[in-house]
Design goal:
about 140 residues, about 10% helix, 5-stranded mixed β-sheet, 4-stranded antiparallel β-sheet, HSP20-like_chaperone, mainly beta, A-crystallin/Hsp20_dom, Small_HSP, Immunoglobulin-like, SHSP domain-containing protein, elongated, 9 strands
């Protein structure tokens, strides 16, 4: 028999937010900015590993994609609310003609993917960008 506190918590959880199974998806937050030398994208990807992320360039469009998995295979907990989004994601960015796609660099550090597109004016048609470990400030 549920306790009064348990009943109150269940009511609070189910009346005040998304619950497991209600389709909470993951779409990373990004900051885009320009410096004198480059175009930059910082994507918040907490809980992901570098190998779960892919950065591609195709005909002027930079794509960041991957998947954030819900890790509860052992069912150790009875979840009442899951507000973190999970699932596959894809963010696309149209790059200016001045971006040099041959020199795009991507680094992943502390849950943040930093993509730097140097300004140069050349624009090849397609390639995948390797992601390096480490801070963008190194």
């Amino acid at each position: 028999m549920p306790t009064r506190l348990g009943t109150m918590l269940d009511r609070f959880f189910f009346e005040n937010g998304p619950t497991l199974g209600m389709g909470v998806t993951f779409s990373p937050k990004v900051d885009t900015y320009e410096t004198e030398k480059s175009y930059n994208i910082d994507a918040a990807l907490p809980g992901l590993k570098q190998e779960d992320i892919k950065v591609d360039f195709d005909q002027g469009v930079l794509t960041i994609s991957g998947e954030r998995k819900f890790e509860n295979e052992r069912n150790e907990h009875q979840y009442h609310v899951v507000e973190n989004g999970y699932g596959s994601f894809m963010r696309t960015f149209q790059l200016p003609n001045a971006g040099d796609a041959n020199k795009i660099q991507a680094t992943f550090d502390n849950g943040v993917l930093h993509v730097e597109v140097p300004k140069d004016g050349r624009r090849p048609s397609q390639h995948q960008i390797p992601i390096k470990s480490g801070s963008k400030n190194k």
